[in-house]
Amino acid sequence: MAEPVKISVSHVNFYYGTNQALHDVSVQIRPQCVTALIGPSGCGKSTFLRALNRMNDLIAGARLEGKVELDGEDIYSDQMDVIHLRRRVGMIFQRSNPFPMSIYDNVAYGVRVNGIAGKRLQLDEIVERTLRAAALWEEVKERLHRSAMSLSGGQQQRLCIARALAVEPEVLLMDEPASALDPISTAKIEELIYNLKQNYTIIVVTHNMQQAARISDETGFFLTGRLVEFNETKRIFTAPANRETEDYITGRFG
Amino acid sequence: MPEREHTSKHYEQQLRELKNKLLLMSHKAEQMISDSIRSLVERRPSLAEEVIGRDDEIDKLEIEVDELCYQILALEQPVAGDLRFIATAMKIVKDIERIGDIAVNIGERATELIQEPELKRLIDLPIMAEAAQKILKESLDAFVNSDAELAKKVIFNDNVLDDLYEQIFRELLTYMLEDPRSISRAIKLIFIAKALERVGDHSANIAEMVVFLVKGQDIRHGTHLDRG
Description:
The structure holds two protein chains of two kinds.
Chain A: E1 7-16, E2 19-29, E3 34-38, H1 45-51, E4 62-70, E5 73-74, H2 82-88, E6 89-92, H3 103-113, H4 120-133, H5 137-140, H6 153-166, E7 171-175, H7 183-196, E8 201-205, H8 209-215, E9 218-223, E10 226-232, H9 233-238, H10 243-249
Parallel strand pairs in A: 3-8, 3-9, 6-7, 7-8
Antiparallel strand pairs in A: 1-2, 1-4, 4-5, 9-10
Helix pairs in contact in A: 3-4, 3-6, 4-6, 6-7
Chain B: H1 9-41, H2 45-76, H3 80-114, H4 124-144, H5 148-178, H6 183-215
């Protein structure tokens, strides 16, 4: 039986105007797995990540060739509802960006916007469940109606993860989710990612090689817009198949 | 350790230092085996004593290699080829240290044998010693040059020593059967032959780790070894 695939990317080229940022990238992302994307700055890993929920559509002159399928469905087809796509494929950014409102409202925001609103009790239940899933509930349950800005950086990032989880996505894209955090907060985010993979497909862009090694099941190494190697993480970090991967992860680069 | 230089010169320097210590240590072990056999064949008790004394240098280097490995693991978090190099270093250091111990054992038996009249002219034992030293040298060359092919050759050639041991054992057995007064000396010679056979085993261990170092493939205990 073939391995299950959540996202299938085939022969993707990506251009910012005339500048080609991705060259013929093909990869199969497995469900309920953490996939890490590593590579030097400007290698195309963030561009690739944003291509998976069409965040690049917002950039003038950006153009994609090739195919990206979510559960076999072409996400770049004319029939695809981009709002619906982004609900299924959520995103967490490097800098936590809570809205200037209460902790509760931050989590409830997406649910309300998506019109799932309904009864107050139901909303309470969703807020508690997602804050628990984001490993933040115990720390904030006494002050749900205080401003989200009163939280620490690590807590804000977990709040953003809770906000993303509240609309029940299937895939979470994370762009350097812990790079601005101290080691303890980073460890909490990593533990959270590890636990979340039971229910979600997670793709993480990170510059922190050890973080990629710790949290991911599979790792892709990007270099100058090409996906040089995609392999099991334990294989990449013990015996990578490609010389360029070896040079990069061991620090023999440039 | 991949040939390209590390961006961090300090890290590169530590890896080099580790390799140099292992090379120094293996050179000393090789020399000890060679001298211990020479002390017996040439009947030179002072050389045997000297070999026994040199074991301290090997032990000291073993500790230094271990410390350096722990330090690199803790501070540099090596991955891929560097990680395999550290893992290899930590394993082969033990084999090299054991080879030093074997040389000491041979030296001790030689000291005792030299005090008694010669049982026979030693012919097969020097041949076996030469074969053991050759295999040891090849396994270390394979390590120095990251040569997986040579390492595989060492693993296959190890049985040459097993055969030589059997031959020496049988011959000495006939001596013991003919003349019980020869038993004590014959047993000591058998002990030395067995020690040389174990040098071959340690060399094969080193060679197996070299294949792992180069290819990232574990071939111990007959797994994954292409016998073609």
